[in-house]
Specification:
With about 230 residues, the protein is mostly beta strands. The protein has one domain: Jelly Rolls, CATH 2.60.120. The protein has helices at about 30-35, 210-230, and strands spanning about 1-5, 10-15, 35-45, 80-105, 115-120, 125-135, 145-150, 155-160, 165-170, 180-190, 200-205.
Amino acid sequence: MQAAEAGVIQTNFGSGTDAVPGGPFDPSGNILATNLVSASATGSFYREDSGYAVVVSRLYDGNLGPLGSDGLGGDGNFTVMPNVATIQFDLDAPYDITAIRTYASWDSGRDGQQYTVSYATALDPSTYTTLLAISRFDVTDFPLREDFDAETGEPVMVPDEDFATTLVQLTPTSGFLAQQVVSLRFMFNGVENGGTAYREFQVMAVPEPSTYCMSLAGLACGGYMLRRRKRA
């Protein structure tokens, strides 16, 4: 399903199995993994009050992460599960954003995605502008499994909702989602039983042209000075 708002296209992918929605997961090109200054989380996260740590780096470490409850693992930590919360990513330079992807997964009760993403630019880094309040997306198509009718004892086929995996992708209708971006905020509103199980965030971007040109100029200047020293 696709929805467009103010030049942004929301494309939803879902699977009622453990298959990765939207095709093979590709960790390359994610500036959250390579160009962050800091990442922070505030607000309420599922089970944090019971001592389970909120490890924000799990959202951009290049690994798709566990399928929901598998996130308990040996260390007792859940996947990052925001309830009413904000996660902020501060970048090391201005970037022009080309795509945003967020992956989530557990069973049908914790796969739903709904959040608002906003950004701040190099021109006004303290002011955040809403990019999009995404429309809620849940998996609704599940494989069938055999069960038994509680009254008759007869076998019946029911949806198997043990796995539900989602991917929400934001792309521009043309050009970029936003330009000269130095910070991104994802704000969550308590959808899905107090916390959706997020697996990985991806932000695809290119350096803002003026920053790129300055980098090239710096390299050129460095090369010129090196040649001068060699000639001396």
